[in-house]
Amino acid sequence: MHALIQPNPGMFGVTHHYDLLLIGAGHAHLGVLRRWALVERPPGRIALISPGPVAWYSGMLPGLLAGRHSAADCQVELQALCRAAKVELIISPVEGLSAAQQQVQLGDGRTLGASWLSLNVGAQISAPPQQGEAMQLLAVKPFDQFISGWQQWQAKPEPMAILGGGAAGVELALALAGKVPQLALFSAGHLLDGLSPGVRLRALGHLRQHAVEVREDCPISRIDNDSLLSGNAPVWRGQRLLLASGAKAFAWPVHSGLGCDERGFVLIAPTLQSYTHPTIFAVGDCASLPGARKSGVYAVRQGPVLATNLSAALRGLPLKRYRPQRQSLALLATGDGGALLDWHGYSAGGQCYGRWKDFLDKGFIQRHRF
Ligand SMILES: Cc1cc2nc3c(=O)[nH]c(=O)nc-3n(C[C@H](O)[C@H](O)[C@H](O)COP(=O)(O)OP(=O)(O)OC[C@H]3O[C@@H](n4cnc5c(N)ncnc54)[C@H](O)[C@@H]3O)c2cc1C
């Protein structure tokens, strides 16, 4: 567990007070707002804080890159959703949090205080240490920066490597394979670790068909000018590296005084409350709870429990417990309109699964449009 670093009490200035601040338009908060738009919202002054006016839906990003969706197809407009839920929308990133004082510092200089806080800010992408500037790095998150960076790269295609052998790395490789002259995919362990062996073999088949060079069990330890090194051995040379590797916690929650795990993710109880500060909830990738994986599916499932618990907290009622599901359905886009399915150790692939994935993804966006 991280040592609790207490923020400087003088760090934050004038405060506007809210009953509840929802920080980040992640999957669970979208679900909370939808529920409050459709059913009764709890009493009090409530706001959502987001760096931008839209929330991107990561599940459709590979389809956007493959040219199968437009950017608008993959976004939820927050103003309309907030208006329907009777929640204020504040556009600015949170840059600091004092758990003890229940205050947040915004990028625009404002300081807000709240009786209750809820964090659903996701995570950033980790990068290996880099020496020299010969290699350009592009992280898949935040999505708007990634999309504009990719558009610049696409204007002048060059050989590229992708770091990350999880579902995101595989989907991106299959979406981008035909768009760059050479593509290599690096996985620290086996490709799609945690999914069934069958889906890994199917993915390897698709990647081979698209001439993607796959390097499994090849953790990248550092970048030295135009070389990727595994241990001390150079394993790839080039000038473009797309980062789709593991989730890395943002620094500001770690420095907030909230109890975090050894990787910096907020430790939460089954009620989704911080263990150290029960007036602060945390969900999705930024939270740490045994059994809950860092994936959109888990963040979505936390939404209904979070909505119930935030309403109960504001009314002084008892809270419900969230229990992570043991299995989750994975549908991986293959870049050609098809998808690979992984469910309970069973794997399959084809165009019909791609249509199913499109149906589920478009349904998610539609559910949050008001
Ligand atoms: C290419 C790709 C494809 C993926 N496909 C799938 C998939 O098909 N299925 C699946 O289950 N998972 C998928 N994932 C994983 C998934 O994206 C994450 O696990 C999921 O988005 C986590 O959800 P979340 O609600 O925790 O946060 P996010 O969905 O990441 O949302 C966090 C929100 O917080 C906001 N935010 C960030 N910092 C701040 C700040 N300082 N202040 C205020 N707001 C802030 C962000 O703008 C964002 O809106 C994919 C990931 C990638 C990269």
From TrEMBL:
<keyword id="KW-0560">Oxidoreductase</keyword>
<keyword id="KW-0274">FAD</keyword>
<dbReference type="InterPro" id="IPR023753">
    <property type="entry name" value="FAD/NAD-binding_dom"/>
</dbReference>
<feature type="domain" description="FAD/NAD(P)-binding">
    <location>
        <begin position="18"/>
        <end position="303"/>
    </location>
</feature>
<dbReference type="GO" id="GO:0019646">
    <property type="term" value="P:aerobic electron transport chain"/>
</dbReference>
<keyword id="KW-0285">Flavoprotein</keyword>
<protein>
    <submittedName>
        <fullName>NADH dehydrogenase, FAD-containing subunit</fullName>
    </submittedName>
</protein>
<dbReference type="Pfam" id="PF07992">
    <property type="entry name" value="Pyr_redox_2"/>
</dbReference>
<dbReference type="InterPro" id="IPR051169">
    <property type="entry name" value="NADH-Q_oxidoreductase"/>
</dbReference>
<dbReference type="GO" id="GO:0003955">
    <property type="term" value="F:NAD(P)H dehydrogenase (quinone) activity"/>
</dbReference>
<dbReference type="InterPro" id="IPR036188">
    <property type="entry name" value="FAD/NAD-bd_sf"/>
</dbReference>
